[in-house]
Amino acid sequence: MITVELIEKYGAIKKSFDKNDLIFEEGNLPLSYYQIVSGEIKMSNYNDDGREFIQGIFYSGQSFGEPPLFLNQKYPANAIAVENAVIFILPKKNFMKLLEENPKVSIKIIENLAQRLYYKSVMAAEISTQEPEHRVLKLIDHGIVYFNFQKDKNGFLINFTRQQIGDLTGLRVETVIRTIKALEKKGELKIINRKVYR
């Protein structure tokens, strides 16, 4: 997203987080821009029944949590390290100055936010109207494009756990497991050593 040289020039610091560490909490006001150097981050919250809903999963090179930062609104979800992670943290004031002085970076940020908004719109329609098989394939196909899943001789390795697929599509993990097996029988997915490929 923003180059290392540029983000450091504007005063970003690198911070390490352990797996399951909270990066920011739902309900807090945003103070900084976050960009992942390494690791995986999820933004999620819980419904009244205590069920987790994942708003998004973010990987190396991606940023997260910008909409509330631009709107000066409280975070609608928690950001948690899915695995050990290193993140650039840039104070809001410095981030805004960086955008003002670097229009090409501003365009990239807008494109990134538009991509996320598009994904949310597509998935909202999927969750409300489509069958589990369709939801799972839509999520996986979006992941291949947006998350740059790696391709090898078996196809694209899908880096979502069954639980994450459930949390991203509004399905129970048991339904996800049955759905993936059904899609394998139809030749839409492959399961090799418990890993899912498209």
Automatic annotation (TrEMBL):
UniProt keyword list: DNA-binding, Transcription, Transcription regulation
Gene3D superfamilies on file: Jelly Rolls
Cyclic nucleotide-binding domain mapped to chain residues: 15-116
Keyword Transport listed: no
Location of the HTH crp-type domain: 130-198
Domain of life: Bacteria
Chain ranges passing through the membrane: none
Alphabetical list of PROSITE patterns matching this protein: CNMP_BINDING_3, HTH_CRP_2
Pfam families according to UniProt: cNMP_binding, HTH_Crp_2
PANTHER family from the UniProt entry: CRP FAMILY TRANSCRIPTIONAL REGULATORY PROTEIN, LISTERIOLYSIN REGULATORY PROTEIN
Protein name per its UniProtKB record: Nitrosative stress-sensitive transcriptional regulator NssR
Species this protein is from: Flavobacterium chungbukense
Upper classification of the organism: Bacteria, Pseudomonadati, Bacteroidota, Flavobacteriia, Flavobacteriales
